[in-house]
Design goal:
- This protein has 171 residues and is of the alpha/beta class.
- The protein has a 7-stranded mixed sheet with strand order 1-7-6-2-5-4-3, with helices on both faces.
- A hairpin with a 5-residue loop joins strand 3 and strand 4.
- Helix 2 crosses helix 3.
- The longest helix has 15 residues.
- The two termini are 26 Å apart.
- The chain binds adenosine-5'-triphosphate and magnesium ion.
- Adenosine-5'-triphosphate (ATP) binds next to helix 2, helix 3 and strand 7.
- Magnesium ion binds next to helix 3.
Length: 171
């Protein structure tokens, strides 16, 4: 694969990719990441059906501190998970959202001021998302293998990824 570095410096500067070898490993990675999230953070997940997006979110919600059950919000568009201290984690599935405009109607700003936001099928509503977003591309490799590519945009998200890397891999 070739990258045009002149137009992708931010995306490529601190991107990180690796292979998960089981759903449990994907959940464990989510737990690490979830512990780092705070209000205002946006995590944009992309990848085909069954790539493991919801599996990752299950770990994230756990690591973030919610005991609420995580399920795919395909039909309600947004699930909200609560933590004992009142913080919120919003979990959106944009699969059935028709456009970025429709996504804006969901009032992302209000979600971000009250908590963090995770979006499955985020590429469908890119225009509605803040520039400073942590993009995660997931891809089916084999029955139990998935690749995950983290692409942080903005200093907060670069910091998130480097902390995540340190926690998950001791790097
Ligand atoms: N390494 C892995 N990481 C994540 N999931 C895996 C892995 N290996 C196998 N799986 C399985 O793949 C499936 C992933 O389903 P999941 O609902 O997380 O995908 P999704 O990306 O959210 O799909 P959708 O677009 O339909 O919402 C689960 O059945 C999970 O057990
Ligand atoms: Mg899903």
């Amino acid at each position: 694969m070739t990258y045009n570095f002149s137009i992708m410096p931010i995306l490529t500067a601190n991107s990180m990719d690796f292979i998960s070898r089981s759903p449990e490993q994907t959940r464990r990675l989510g737990i690490r990441l979830g512990g780092l999230l705070r209000a205002g953070d946006v995590l944009a997940l992309n990848g085909d059906l069954g790539a493991g997006k919801t599996t990752l979110v299950q770990g994230i919600a756990q690591g973030w501190g919610s005991t609420d059950a995580v399920s795919s919000p395909t039909f309600v568009l947004v699930n909200v998970y609560r933590r004992p201290d009142g913080a919120l984690l919003h979990h959106m599935d944009a699969y059935r959202v028709e456009s970025a405009l429709e996504a804006e109607d969901l009032d992302l700003d209000a979600m971000l001021s009250s908590g963090a936001l995770i979006v499955e099928w985020a590429e469908r509503i890119t225009a509605a998302l803040p520039t400073e977003t942590l993009w995660v591309d997931m891809r089916w490799i084999a029955e139990e293998h998935r690749s995950l590519v983290f692409k942080p945009v903005g200093s907060r998200n670069q910091h998130l990824v480097s902390e995540f890397k340190r926690l998950a891999f001791g790097g």
